[in-house]
């Protein structure tokens, strides 16, 4: 495994992380604690040290609770735990952006994660209007001083949101999380240059384009999960036709497409880590192997 410094933090994170949105049950599968433990134990064996989650990944902090149960039996110091705030899913879904509401969310997340601190606490895809809240950022700075948060970050909802990215230093945020993959390169235009200028870490989410870049699907496939089943037949086939073209023209022979897609993200100098989701220890192994691919500028990721 390879590691990179996360922006201006003192954190060295694995270039492959674990995205845990799927633990909340929205990816067409309900997880058990045993399954989550198996995934995270295998991740640790492979040198992965970054877990990304959020309080709204599943009702009642479900993803965070799975992770917390695991951490309670492991060495907390071995992990970089990133979570997010701004949305609340208990008996129903709602937004929660006031300083007082986020303060409550933080305490609930700490309890669910069974930890005294969160390494990276991220503003979660909120509007520019709720972002501009001095009371919120003052409260979060006090939480840093109290040791409950080690670093702040911003998970931008739109991957061209340069407004929030440019203001990262003003609110003491040290990392940006953004959608970035071979099918969606929008951050390269403005967001990444701003991140480089401010020395912000970058967490690339959805690096496999919701599975389209896994190489497993072909035009005509149907999806049942809550994310992709909302796409039109035309949209699905258009994406998969492009993926087939990419696989034929860009992915070197003998290289797994999903691993190539992760390595493709990591070649950009702004990107610190990718955080693909996974359903099994086997998928963790496949993701981790992408760290052994090297992208030569002007070429394609190839085996070292």
UniProtKB/TrEMBL annotation:
Family matches, as InterPro entries: AKR2_Oxidoreductase (IPR053135), NADP_OxRdtase_dom (IPR023210)
Domain NADP-dependent oxidoreductase: 16-299
Domain of life, per lineage: Bacteria
Transmembrane regions: none
A Pfam family assignment: Aldo_ket_red
The protein's name in its UniProt record: Aldo/keto reductase
Organism: Evansella tamaricis
Lineage per the UniProt record: Bacteria, Bacillati, Bacillota, Bacilli, Bacillales
């Amino acid at each position: 495994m390879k590691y990179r410094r996360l922006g201006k933090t003192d954190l060295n994170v694995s270039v492959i992380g674990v995205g845990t949105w799927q633990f909340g049950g929205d990816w067409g599968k309900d997880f058990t604690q045993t399954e989550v433990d198996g995934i995270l134990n295998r991740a640790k064996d492979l040198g992965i040290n970054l877990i990304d989650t959020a309080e709204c990944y599943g009702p009642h902090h479900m993803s965070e609770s799975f992770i917390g149960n695991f951490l309670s039996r492991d060495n907390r110091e071995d992990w970089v735990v990133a979570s997010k705030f701004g949305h609340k899913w208990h008996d129903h879904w709602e937004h929660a952006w006031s300083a007082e509401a986020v303060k409550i969310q933080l305490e609930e997340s700490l309890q669910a994660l069974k930890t005294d601190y969160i390494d990276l606490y991220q503003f979660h895809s909120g509007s520019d209007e709720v972002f501009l809240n001095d009371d919120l950022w003052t409260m979060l700075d006090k939480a840093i001083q109290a040791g409950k948060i080690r670093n702040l970050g911003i998970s931008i909802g739109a991957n061209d949101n340069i407004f929030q990215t440019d203001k990262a230093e003003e609110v003491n945020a040290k990392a940006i999380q953004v959608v970035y993959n071979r099918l969606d390169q929008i951050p390269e235009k403005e967001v990444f240059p701003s991140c480089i200028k401010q020395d912000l870490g970058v967490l690339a989410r959805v690096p496999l384009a919701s599975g389209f870049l896994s190489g497993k699907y072909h035009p005509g496939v149907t999806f049942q999960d809550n994310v992709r089943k909302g796409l039109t037949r035309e949209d699905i086939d258009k994406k998969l036709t492009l993926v087939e073209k990419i696989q034929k023209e860009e992915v070197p022979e003998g290289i797994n497409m999903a691993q190539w897609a992760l390595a493709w993200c990591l070649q950009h100098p702004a990107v610190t880590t990718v955080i693909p989701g996974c359903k099994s220890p086997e998928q963790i192994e496949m993701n981790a192997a992408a760290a052994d691919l090297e992208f030569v500028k002007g070429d394609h990721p190839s085996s070292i």
